[in-house]
Amino acid sequence: MKTAETVLQVKGLTKIYKSLFTSAGVKAVDNLNLSIRRGETYSIVGPNGSGKTTTLKILLGLIFPTAGTTSIFGKSISDLSVRERIGFLPEDAYLYDCFNGEELLDFYAGLFGYPKKKRRQLVDELLALVGMQANRKVPFRECSKGMRQRLALAQALVNDPELLILDEPTSGLDPAGRHQMTLLILEMKKRGKTLLLCSHFLAEVEEVCDRVGVMYRGSLVAEGTLQELAGGPTQVRITTDKLQPQAMDAISRMASVVTVEGGAITMGAEATNSSVWTVLEKVNEAGGEVLEVLRPRPTLQDVFVKAIGASAEENQ
Amino acid sequence: MSALLTRLIPLIGLILIAAIIVITRRAWVPALSHSVPSIWRIAGITVAEARRRRVVHTVIILVIVILLSMTFFSYLSPQEQSRMIISSGLTAITVFGILLSIFIAAFLIPHEVETRTIYAILSKPVRRFEFVLGKYVGALIVLAVVTVVMTAVLVVVLLVQARLVPSTPDSVFNPNLGAVLFAAFMNYCALAVLTSLIILISTMTSTTMTVISAFIIWTVGSMQSTFRDLAEKAYGGAKVLLLVIYYVVPKLENFDFRQEAANYMPISIVGGWHAVLLGALYVAIALVIAGIFFNDRQV
Amino acid sequence: MRTYRVSRWSVWLFVLGMLLLQVPLQEAIHKARPDKFSPTRRMQTGSMFGLGPTPAVIASLGGFRTVAADLLWLQMERVWDSGNWFALLPLLDAVTQLDPHFVLAWKTYGWHCAYNLNAESETIVDRKYWLDRGLEILQRAVEANPDSWEMVFELGWTYYDRAHENYRAAEYVRQADKMPGAPSYVSRMSYRVYEHIMDFKNLFPAMQQALKEHTDEHAHQRIVNRDIEWWTKMRDDPQEHRRQIVIENTARQQRALPFYLFPNDPYWVVCEHDGLPSPKGSKVCQACGRPLPQALPIGSSSQPARG
Question: Which residues contact A250 (CB under 8 A, 6 or more apart)?
């Protein structure tokens, strides 16, 4: 199988913010390594101050690293040809507030050197894509948060980029707004774009991302697909009713059963399907009622908290 | 300054400039085809933004009111009236032009960095020096429009007064339009120099410090002759220091032709032309250094 | 990480080159605009009445000199009507310091001292003092505005009308006449100064010179021709000539009478033959026409007392 091309590569990236008055500095990013393949949706998650936005800013050439290298499409960000192939949605949609959506998109399209006719066409298409056609003449300062984020996404898409970098795309949006934004991101994914996301909203990350990197205090403490991060099989939880104490006692002695408390039977992660069936049959025989059988996977939140916790313990 | 030094210094300067231009031609020649449209786009958005902001309109209205109020000196002789309107009118244009220049230019780049609108631009294929140049060109266009409007109002006031004010053979209301237009143009050139310096300072520091520095530059630049006089009287290290300050600080007095216009003195076109060339040099110096600083600045 | 296609040192060298290039440009500007930048022409300091350079320096900040001069001029206009003539002096002093090219202000200043304050003075010493001040002010005005015919003429007129130094007046009026923009009455004044002292030797050539100027002005030509005719008759008619001399001498003596009290006053030169005073600068005695013993070079002033 042909491996997809590496679109973004970060090696040994370190950023230290030095204070004027002390020789020590704040390490915002610490020896970060990551790579993103073409067509992949990668998300960097982490608590506030973990270095996510700093990493993005270094990638975009807005700030400069203390050590390490970054490359996009095999080149440095200072190469203009790279910037012609990427789009960036900044956090909180920082755009000129005295212009309306049409004017803003026309301006940003102009920065790519598109002629007037093409710009007009692009503006119409993008406004339709983000659902802002009806509000194209509304000044940016009068737009709601959701409208601003959509316009900001539109400006990131003005050059039909191969790599899309989104910093907190759903930040500050209401649930409906978040849902709309998630749909748009999925649409971009469907179109084959490579996406790099930074987000606090783990639920939306779970929905859209292929791989996730968990950052904590400037380092990547966990990385992988959701399945990889979730780990192997998990415990089985069987909720029952009308189970007699003797039956409970007998079930507790069965293979792979960890605990039986009240009506709740917990089986270990090693429990196979057949052993689960065996327990269920036993419950049935004992006259009990099976209410629920669950084998929950850890959520990204669980992974996140676990990874952060582990890293915090390590640092201590 | 000795005659040999006077010839040697500019020669060294010319050789340096020519050498650098030739050596670095492979870098800047291909960049030109991309840079000019980018600079123009950034300038366009700067002008559009200034148009939407109220400060420009407010300044223009204020100046028009001041210029119109200068028709109230009817108790003076025609000669005095014409002098008064010309000198006060040109000074109003100068003062408000400088204020506008400071408040437009000081906020151009720092405001973009503070509101982070610069992120969306620098993530596009726009070089940092193109951004700086584009902002400068945009500011120049705004100042040009404002200067033209204010000068037009002054000219109208002068022409109307020339018709209304009764003149005697000894005392005539002379609008001296040629000199007035020349003085206004030179004033605009001074604003261009001041704007470039404000942009340079704004790439290094905050908005507040930029505004303060701009007022200092304006004040010191208007008193350049004082440094020269002091340098002539000083000796040793103080003389060298004063001469360095004198030659490095931009000399806004070079662009001041208000006295000539108000007193109907002959205008030195040669002096004006040299001042424009000198101003262009200062602008180039300021923008190059601004480009360097901004290139290294972490936003 | 950051790639510069143009190396940093070359950019700084470029900046240095441009800085060096601005030196000769600035020198060229100084040569092209001496009225603004020549130290000998600038009137930054040297107030007549001890005001010092403060108003000029303060108004220099930000380049507000001409507007400050205008505002003070308006204030001067208001004070004028109050009759407090001494209060006008600091205002006029400041106006001329702030804007040395404000010709009207210089004229007013010089005239105010040489005429108003001179006439209002009660003692001869005071009268002489104010006349000297007025002449000194106008002299400074000429230095500050060497291209202004008005200033030169004003100085010449004051020498003629108030100081009665006709030959010095003649020099200045002739100088003003040669300057661009001078009207025809300046031409006529250039010979009237000789009429007053009946110096026919200089009068007729001056009248002929005036006739050659302003040939397109009929009034000027008519007046000069009339004057030539009149003075020719005067010169050729001894009776009339003597009568005019007596009239003029009497008038002149009456004017000079107070100064008989100060025979050693360096303002006057006393004729060795008839003992009558003539103003300093006169080549010949105003009364008898004989050459004066110490003819001082034209242009040297009396000893002005510095304010």
Answer: A282, A286
A222-253 tens-digit pLDDT: 888 877 776 666 788 899 988 888 888 888 88
Q: Which among B243, B224, B225 has a CA at the least distance from the CA of B234?
A: B243
Restricting to A residues 71-110, those with a Cβ less than 8 Å away from any Cβ of C are 76, 78-79
Taking each helix axis from N to C end, the angle separating C218-236 and C200-212, rounded to the nearest 10 degrees, works out to 160
Tokens 């057949």 -> residue = A274
State the Cα–Cα distance between residues A220 and C274, nearest whole angstrom: 118
Least confident of A157-166, B19-28, B120-129, B287-296: B19-28
Residue ranges of B 161-220 with Cβ closer than 8 A to chain C: 218-219
- Domain assignment present for C250: no
CA C238 to each of CA A80, A231, A266, C231: distance values in angstroms, whole numbers, following the listed order: 103, 139, 152, 12
CATH number at C56 reads 1.25.40
What Cα–Cα distance (Å) separates residue C190 from each residue in A130, A242, B68, B275, C108?
89, 137, 44, 41, 22
User: Among A61, A80, A29, A10, which residue's Cα sits nearest to residue A216?
Assistant: A29
CB contact under 8 A, C3 and A70: no
Alpha helix (H) ranges present in chain B? 3-23, 25-52, 54-69, 78-115, 117-122, 128-164, 177-202, 207-221, 224-233, 236-248, 258-262, 269-296
Does C1 reside within a domain? no
pLDDT of residue C49: 58
Residue B125 is assigned to a structural domain of this protein:
yes
Q: How many domains does chain C have?
A: 1
- C32–B274: do the CB atoms touch at under 8 Å? yes
Q: Report the number of secondary-structure helices (H) and strands (E) in chain A.
A: 11, 13
Return the number of other C-beta atoms located less than 10 Å from residue C181's C-beta. Answer: 11
Total structural domains in chain B?
Answer: 1
Give first-to-last CA distance, chain C, whole Å.
71
Ranges of beta strands (E only) in chain C are 268-270, 277-279
Of C197 and A72, more confident: A72
- C154: domain range? 46-162
| Residue B122 contacts residue A62 (beta carbons within 8 Å) | yes
* pLDDT tops 80 at residue A268: yes
* Cα angle: A165, vertex A171, A175; to 5 degrees: 120
Res. B123 pLDDT band, cuts 50 70 90 = very high
In a domain, residue C137? The reply is yes
* Nearest neighbour of B125 by CB, restricted to A92, A94, A112: A112
Q: What is the pLDDT of residue C246?
A: 64
B84: which 2 tokens? 């008064």
Any idea what the Cα angle at residue C173 is, between residues C217 and C245, rounded to 5°? 95
Our CA-based measurement puts residue C134 at a distance from the nearest CA of chain B, in whole angstroms, of 22
Query: What's this model's pTM, rounded to 2 decimal places?
Result: 0.79
pLDDT tens for residues B233-250? 788 888 888 888 787 788
Structure-model confidence comparison of residues C67 and C269, the more confident one: C67
Extract the tokens encoding C128: 């002489």
Question: Does residue A11 contact residue A33 with C-beta atoms inside 8 Å?
Answer: yes
* pLDDT for res C296: 45
Domain membership of residue B67 as a residue range: 34-296
Q: Using DSSP, state whether A15 is helix, strand or coil.
A: strand
Q: Which residues pair with A236 in a beta bridge?
A: A267
Tell which wins on pLDDT, B166 or B218: B218
Q: Is the Cα dihedral A243, A249, A252, A253 positive or negative?
A: negative
Residues 26-55 of B with CB under 8 A from C: 26-28, 31
Query: Which of these, A91, A125, A80, A82, lies nearest to A106 by C-alpha position?
Result: A125
